[in-house]
Amino acid sequence: MIPFSPPRIDQKVIDEVTAALKSGWITTGPRTKQFEKMISAYCGHESTLCVNSGSSGLELMLRWFGVGEGDEVIVPAYTYSATANVVVHCGAKPIFVDSGTDFNIDTKKIRQAITPATKVVIPVDLAGFPCDYVEINKCVRDNVIRKMFTPKTQEQEMLGRILVLSDAAHSIGARYQGKKTGTLTDISVFSFHAVKNMTTAEGGAVCLNLPEPFNNEEVYKYLCIKSLHGQTKDALAKTKAGNWQYDVIEAGYKYNMTDIQAAMGIVELQRYDKDMLVRRKQIFDLYSQGFANKDWAILPPYETAEKTSSYHVYLLRIKRIDEVQRNSIISRIFDRQVSVNVHFIPLPMLSYYKNAGYTIDDYPVSYENFSHVITLPVYYDLNDKQVQTVISTVIESVEEVL
Ligand SMILES: *Cc1c(COP(=O)(O)O)cnc(C)c1O
Known about the structure:
The protein has 402 residues and is of the alpha/beta class. It contains 15 helices and 13 strands.
């Protein structure tokens, strides 16, 4: 069986994790701080806070911005549930916007979804392909949209407009107009979950790129407190001689990353551009070559004049089929010992959101994308021979059903 997305664990990762375990410091400490600095240097934004998951990072930033009861947050209908669940946790309402044919949120439809209750937009770089950030950033800065904005907290007052909080769970290392994700919006959040491009088993990073008058380093220092029980000193600071006193300034969260996790991330980030992204791009290119002459194949966009993907997952669409035929193709692929997937079931089709009153009929492009898509495996250890097996297996399975 060709698996779908095993993590890349080699001796280097094992050695660094072992070094962390033997160091005497396993929770948030020197390795986490080093990993944060490496992420800021890699992407080019000012400050990074590492957390225990991408979801925690998104929720922390919604709470930092004061999102709550009565507020609306715009999210794509086509994403993983985490993007919208964190909005629900805060007591606010997710407002779904349909996607475009590139799988990303349709920027033209964002504007129509904005109301005086809108506080945040959460675009998702689906499959690692960056959204149209020039348009999104322009939209929230538009005078008419700004006038509609009704700030309720000091942070909202300071920003004076809708916050763009990018769900960059898939897109570390992707570029838009020459700039890396992390620098493209006010705040971006990466995920280091086991199936993501870069993994710490579980983990995430909040990239702070807030405009004036915010001081990103100060926001970072406050978030260190907010993500650790509201406690004014972390465990490491408290172990310094005579440094036992601390205060709790708010009922904060428990979202910190451990040094064991950071150890994995440090190794991976050091070689991410050199080999991880190189290999992923090769696999994407092989898939695109493999299906290029099939008139039933819709190949995903992953490199354009303005955008370069992080090559997270390969979203192949099959023309002229319905959802039932797509499912039949998938089961034929599995019967031939190849693992594939579907990214994602649009949120309005899932029970919780359906029961909350959303319907997929309102998001036709999301449904169109979903019902035709098959996600093909992309990971570092997938070799060329396996890629060719995936391609021939998909072709046989599709052509049986068409
Ligand atoms: C994985 C993922 C997340 C959540 O990341 P975790 O680290 O698992 O919390 C958020 N959004 C999208 C689109 C994802 O794929």
